[in-house]
Amino acid sequence: MRQAWLLLLFLIAPTPAVAAPHASLPPLQPLLDAAAAYATLKLGPGCYAGPAVIRKPLTLDGGGRACIDNGGRGTVLTVQAHDVTLRGLHLTRSGESFDSMDAGILVEADRARISGNRIDAVLFGIHLKAGNNALVSHNVLRGQPAPLNLRGDAVRIWYGHGNRIEDNDIAEMRDITLANAPGNTIQGNKIRHGRYAAHLIFSPDNALIGNDIAHTATGIAVLYSDRVRIAANRIHHVRAEAGAALALKETNGTEVRGNEILHCAIGLQANSPLHGHDILHIEGNRFAHNDTALYFYGDKGGHELRRNRFEKNLSTLLVSHTNATRGHIWEDNAWDDYEGFDRNGDGIGDTPHEQWLYADRIWMETPKARFFRNTPALELLDFLERLAPFSTPDRLLADPRPHLIRKSAP
């Protein structure tokens, strides 16, 4: 009997090996409290215990050898003062609460500089809560092991403007999310294995430039956010069935320029302009090796597509309704499926490039039929309908100056 009681006590007693790593660490907070305003606090090598709060302007420098461990509870480091710099730190083991948005770093002030840090085993990475004019650069961010929808955001900007998120290495986290956050820049980041690489909601006048995005469920999603600039990004291997490299909804004056979109389920997905002025300017992009390069849905068109390059996509264009592209402007795009001639050799087709809706109508009326796309049976059906249409086909696009894509020699 005594042995049984000893075994029971052993099973229910706290395990020192789990609690000791955090409980035995020297706390960081007294060092922060003792530092003078605008001082540089250089931490010695080793781990310090969080949580900690910075309430004065200063620089906290870990030299690449200092760790702040939160023991799996709450937010690791909170910044409540303007003009704080955090660099060379390893912040780890936040809590797991979405209610309190447990994070590696919470910033509630302006002009923070967060550079050269590693943030891992955290729910949210960096949360800018009404923080403005921050620089978040050259950090490595990794989340907690969890299903995709149960991970927190790598970077979350809420009611903040003038922030720059640049040259960070982000993986295994949910999104970069901007909510009610105008006038920020997301540039040069490498983003892998997340839900959305960037997710903008009611956040106008932002710029997403030169990011490398791969293996996310959706690339860049812009919802109800006007005048967004999406330029020179490389988005590839976004393969989720319901996702797209670029997903745009009710955004006016947004520019999509010079992006490379490769090996995605859908290259660009957008709704028709609802109010007559929600126009997208889609120019100079390359869409290649995608299942579907473009997908438009709604009752009318109106977007502008100029100087884009479409090559080796299974489908160049799909629509939810025959009117979804009516009113689009197509000019000087390059098409690998152009069927006309170039008699003078100037690289521009002699006749317009047109796409008509033949057997493609099946995808609209029976979406489950997409499973059979490019099968011999439906390819034959499409061929026969082009020879002798069963009904009057609908024209989806007409580019009066189609540029030819020269096929390289084998």
Task: Report what the structure shows.
The structure is a single chain. The protein has 410 residues and is mainly beta. It has a domain at 48-174. 10% of the residues lie in helices and 39% in strands. It contains five helices and 39 strands. It has a 25-stranded parallel sheet that branches. Strands 3-5-7-10-13-16-19-22-25-28-31-34 form a twelve-stranded parallel sheet. Strands 37-38 form a two-stranded antiparallel ribbon. The model is unreliable at 1-20 (pLDDT under 50).
Give Rg in angstroms: 26 Å
Please report the distance between the alpha carbons of the first and last residues: 83 Å
With helices defined by DSSP (H or I, 4 residues minimum), what is the helix count? 5
> Structural class, from helix and strand content?
mainly beta
Q: State the share of residues found in helices, binned by percent.
A: 10-25%
Q: Biggest sheet: strands, sense, closure?
A: 25 strands, parallel
Q: Please state the overall shape, judged from the principal axes of the Cα atoms.
A: elongated
Count of extended strands: 39
The poorly predicted ranges are: 1-20
